[in-house]
UniProtKB/TrEMBL annotation:
Pfam families according to UniProt: Acetyltransf_7
Protein name: Acetyltransferase (GNAT) domain-containing protein
SUPFAM superfamilies: Acyl-CoA N-acyltransferases (Nat)
Keyword terms, alphabetized: Transferase
Gene3D superfamilies, A to Z: 3.40.630.30
InterPro entries: Acetyltransferase_Butenolide, Acyl_CoA_acyltransferase, GNAT_dom
Boundaries of every N-acetyltransferase domain copy: 1-140
GO terms for MF: acyltransferase activity, transferring groups other than amino-acyl groups
Organism of origin: Modicisalibacter muralis
Record keyword Transferase present: yes
Amino acid sequence: MTDDGYALVHEPPEVEVYLRLRREAGMNERSAPGAGRGLPNSLFAVQVTYQGETVGMGRVVGDDGCFYQVVDIAVKPAHQGQGLGKRIMGEIRDYILRTAPPNAFVSLMADGEAHRLYAQFGFRPTHSLGMGWYPNLISD
């Protein structure tokens, strides 16, 4: 634990905690079955706790060789502005620098002002909007 009462935990959150934190941080919802399947498959995960409660999180997913994606960076609104996003990203950066082979590609999707945080860790726009697919949300 640090002097400010926050502690880092290097494991994925429980499904209920994950879903709650995403919701409180204003992120898109995920299903409990999806989270239950996905969270254990994280390459790396970090939680920030305060007085026993998870108030921030971040994960890395991918193939553990060529491609890594930073996902689920979230901080509970009451704890934003305390540098927790930087702590989470610092842990993720350290993990990737320690484990990723040469020429691995690390990506993330940023919305709003989050790009300011990620730029501090070397992320740059790709000048492409890219594409995404939510297969269960498509209607004919």
